[in-house]
Design a protein that fits this description.
The chain is of the alpha+beta class. It is built from ten helices and ten strands. It has two domains: 166 residues, Jelly Rolls (Sandwich), CATH 2.60.120.10; 104 residues, Arc Repressor Mutant, subunit A (Orthogonal Bundle), CATH 1.10.10. Helix 4 crosses helix 5 and helix 8 crosses helix 9.
Length: 323
């Protein structure tokens, strides 16, 4: 989730915010990609691979080769990826990348991490550039929005900008031996990539695959979203979020749905269930304990809600994931 920053409004006699020679007075996003890193991967076909699950947000860029991406959450979606395509997705979301002709029965593995420099890719190889942001807030935000897909035929302006940023990134890791402030350079390039991905989804038409609307959220709603994503386990109510936003409950609910495509309650439910699902895989929780963690008064209500989100009961879902 991009951090928001407000600035004082310009004087009525001052320059317009759109004047490129003056500082912007309506900076909606101040992004810091602390801890970001990139790697290349060139898997041999056939392959059935995934990105490491957890509190990560990923930028997956296809330099060469074709594959299919299947994502199961928040809704089941399939993307046919080829050279030039870019996808942003959350490590909290179940997903799988498959080479052509590879079915679901093929063993699943993780992408091998290779350095950006010093790798000679042969023509015809699958060649990927992958960015990783180990940040829970951004991973949760990415999960709520869903996958972000940019193809050069679909979002040529923003895709080209991202690939130009990728070229700068690779130049940074060439054989110059210069490492002074390299982490800062990498972070800045990652921020440019994220901003252009955000621009792309904000300008998509409302009838597109994604539920994200063409207009950005106001600062008050972004502030409430940021508070929620920083403490998703808190016993939030719509009134709490509306109070942070400085809006009425009705106005906040309408604006929240315009931004996320979901009501505040649907979003709170989704994130709590997802967090509980992750703990089902890492802890020996009973269904009753999981229901309590997710904020449900009964195990039966929790099972029904879980099945609506994931398509399986908690017990069956856990068995399937662990297998």
């Amino acid at each position: 989730m991009a951090r928001s920053k407000t600035k004082s409004a310009a004087s009525s006699k001052g320059p317009a915010a759109s004047d490129p020679t003056e500082p912007a007075t309506d900076q909606r996003y101040d992004v810091r990609m602390d801890g970001v890193y990139f790697f290349r991967s060139m898997p041999a076909t056939p392959f059935h691979l995934a990105l490491e699950g957890g509190d990560y947000s990923y930028c997956f860029m296809v330099r060469r080769g074709t594959m299919t991406l299947n994502i199961e959450f928040p809704v089941s979606q399939t993307f046919d990826l080829g050279p030039g395509d870019i996808v942003g997705l959350s490590g909290l979301t179940s997903h799988a990348f498959r080479s052509p002709g590879c079915d679901a029965s093929f063993p699943t593995g993780l992408f091998e991490k290779q350095p950006l420099a010093g790798v000679d890719a042969q023509p015809g190889d699958v060649d990927l550039l992958i960015g990783v942001v180990p940040q829970e807030t951004l991973a949760l935000s990415n999960m709520v929005i869903g996958p972000i897909y940019l193809g050069r035929s679909r979002s040529p302006e923003y895709a080209d900008r991202i690939w130009k940023a990728a070229e700068l990134l690779e130049d940074e890791f060439q054989d110059s031996g210069e490492t002074y402030s390299q982490s800062i350079i990498v972070r800045r390039i990652a921020e440019i990539i994220l901003i252009n991905m955000t621009r792309s989804i904000l300008t998509q038409s409302s009838g597109d695959t994604f539920s994200v609307p063409p207009m950005p959220a106001g600062m008050n709603v972004l502030r409430a979203l940021q508070e929620f994503l920083q403490m998703p386990e808190k016993d939030w109510t719509v009134e709490d979020l509306a109070r942070i936003a400085g809006m009425s409950r009705t106005k906040f609910s309408d604006e929240f749905r315009r931004v996320t495509g979901k009501t505040p309650i649907q979003t709170i439910t989704r994130i709590r269930l997802t967090m509980t699902a992750r703990r089902l895989l890492t802890e020996r929780l009973s269904i009753e304990e999981a229901a309590d963690l997710a904020g449900y008064s009964s195990a039966a209500a929790f099972v029904r809600a879980f099945q609506r989100e994931f398509g399986l009961t908690p017990a069956r879902w856990r068995r399937q994931q662990l297998s």
